[in-house]
Design goal:
Strand content of chain A: 5-15%
Number of helices of chain A: 8
Strand order of the largest sheet of chain A: 4-3-5-6
Largest sheet of chain A: 4 strands, parallel
CATH class of the domain at 77-171 in chain A: Alpha Beta
Structural class of chain A: alpha/beta
Helix content of chain A: 40-55%
Oligomer: homodimer
């Protein structure tokens, strides 16, 4: 239409670039941001600016942190013999929530994807290899996603890590707990048969 | 868990305050904001700051605009005899998209809601009354939402506007086009019967 408010349209356009936000949501968020009292709006804007200024990758594991090293790499009570390699910082949170894993992590910040133009050079592989020089490390768990990209990355890593004489493991495939067999896809069922264990 | 990154947690918390954004979405958005290249992030932050600084209410109709008066109030080709009263700036967009309405608008910025502590004083009613002093105005369309609050506001307004000797109308109630009768609620069906028209 002929009647537009350029700063508002620009704001909606910017918000719409965020992942998972469509035009309607962007509109709603834009109007909400305009309606906020000044201190609330400043708090949000400052949170973005501040987080971006203070958060960077841990010098050791490449997870996101505001210190030089992340709290997990710094913790005295973590098992330093095991490194769990994940694609994304959020995956670290997922493992931490299990309260089962007590080793260290390494965040690749992506997975190999020729389609998206992501090759091994874009991942934090050098930083991982540096860590493997430490004789304390005994096992590397490849915990990339069970997707084409995650599998390709795990395969690439397993070959890359061969010379290190480490135990290299991959997460178990199988039926998700609480799921129904009826809805499991064939490949998952097949993998859960292959990986069956004696009780 | 014990391992937290305060600026990141603060950012997630701030994003979670936005309407329709849960914890998972807030997390995803926060990580996305951190991953953006600096110019992209600045563009978003600036869009928020800039829109908030430049957008305010039109001096006439209280719609949002970056000028003193909004483009609709300023347009030479709009019918100045009709004012369509809506709750929200987004409602103006909805009517404009019909390309049917060529009159003016008045944005109340809310509806009367004793539950939410919104009384007539919080709405842009004075600004509306000022406009009605113009003898060019012949009709006021009450286009508040068909909700309890919108109805209460329309009732209140219709009484408030009595002394002005204007035509005061309310949007038609009825079955939504493209809907199925089977799924229409009883009150809507009843209203669509009451408002039936000869063909």
């Amino acid at each position: 239409m002929a009647y537009t408010v350029p700063p508002l349209d620009h704001l909606i356009e910017q918000i719409q670039k965020l992942p998972g936000i469509g035009h309607k949501s962007a509109q709603r968020l834009a109007f909400y941001l305009l309606s906020l009292p000044a201190p609330k709006a400043e708090e949000l804007v400052n949170a973005i600016v501040d987080a971006r200024a203070r958060i960077h990758e841990c010098a050791v594991c490449c997870n996101l942190t505001d210190g030089e090293r992340c709290p997990i790499c710094d913790a005295a009570d973590r098992d330093r013999s095991t490194i769990c390699v994940v694609e994304d910082p959020r995956d670290v949170g997922a493992f931490e929530r299990t309260r089962e894993y007590n080793g260290l992590y390494h965040v690749l910040h992506g997975a190999i994807s020729p389609m998206a133009g992501v090759g091994p050079d874009q991942l934090r592989l050098k930083q991982l290899l540096v860590r493997l020089a430490d004789p304390a490390v005994r096992e590397v768990i490849l915990a990339t996603n069970p997707t084409v990209e995650g599998e390709a990355t795990a395969m690439y890593l397993s070959r890359l890590l061969k010379p290190f004489e480490l135990k290299v493991t991959r997460l178990a495939y199988g039926i998700p707990v609480g799921g129904e067999l009826e809805y499991a896809d064939e490949i998952t069922l097949q993998r859960s048969l292959e990986g069956r264990r004696e009780l």
